Hints:
The chain is built from 13 helices and 8 strands. By secondary structure, it is α/β, with parallel strands linked by helices. The chain has an 8-stranded mixed beta sheet with strand order 1-4-3-2-5-7-6-8, sandwiched between helices. α5 links the parallel β3 and β4. α8 packs parallel to α11, α11 packs across α12 and α12 packs antiparallel against α13. The longest helix has 39 residues. The protein is elongated, with a radius of gyration of 25 Å. It starts with a strand and ends with a helix.
Amino acid sequence: MVQPAGKIQRRSGGESRSRFRDYSSIYFKQWEATTGKSRTISINQKNPKNSDEAKYPVQSNEQIAALIPAFNESLVIGSVVLQTRKYVDHVIVINDGSTDETAEIARLSGAEVVDMPENVGKAHAMMAGFKRAKMLGYSVVVMFDGDGQHNPHDIPAVSAPVLSGEADVVIGSRFLNIEAKIPTYRIAGQKILNGFTNATCNFKTTDSQSGFRALNKYALDHLTFSSEGYNLESDMLSHFSDCKLKITEVPIHVRYDVPHKHKMNPLAHGLGVFTRLVGMIGYRRPLLSFGVPGFAFFTVGFLMEIYTFSTFVGIGQFNYILFTGGIALLTLGLLLLVCGLILNSLVILMKDGNKRGGV
């Protein structure tokens, strides 16, 4: 159920863009540090011809909505909404079945609240938020968490590449120009999840689990995938990569001294995403998930058999345990290789069928 934000009126696009322009020096410094490029883009001004600016025109008529999922965030949601309203035209808080005053505080702070009937998880909550933003006609959406870890002050930096036409999707990365003290276990876990996420898509990300992102209308129209819980970020990245959307990253700030920094055990969270990614790799890249292990098992088994027979020829001693283990690994390796090849052929056939269907 959608509850509008009381008597607080929605800002006009001109007012929001004026505030956005005030922070241009900040986000373009971050942009230049990330990309190595140096250019100036003015909001609401025509770009001169034959210049680098003309290649990346800012769409000054775009209106921005912020989507903030929240579950029992009454302690911080008010300040998050108030800070966010400085940079966007409209704030939508998705209340994911909170049992505290999250929804009421968000409304009093000026946000529109979409109430979920129960705690459905981040993925389903965000999809409801995207649907509402599209219904209201917003063509640019910025999403970030409602627990206070993300800084709304980074909204201009994250949305700049989308507004300029540089990208369809922007990921705010915690690992570009790191300033925050990120816990070691988070860095280690993130590197593992990044590796598996990168194996499922063509874009190589530095922060696959970042919930701070900006999407343009083209990306919003391609939200045609299913996801569960905290798998949203990886599923989104993989799906958008398959759809050939332009994706880029910019540095953001993050803090971890917030009241509810863990909605679930970090280990359980990481294992859940990891399991999902392994399944995605098996589906999208069967040669990688089946062929590589199969080749490794086959190689080890082959070497074990060579050693067994060379020992038998040299000293007349036959190691039955080593021989049996080698045969088992050879068999397992061959099975995995064959499965990988068959599944890879099916994936190719499916992609060809989809291409023909889309013509």
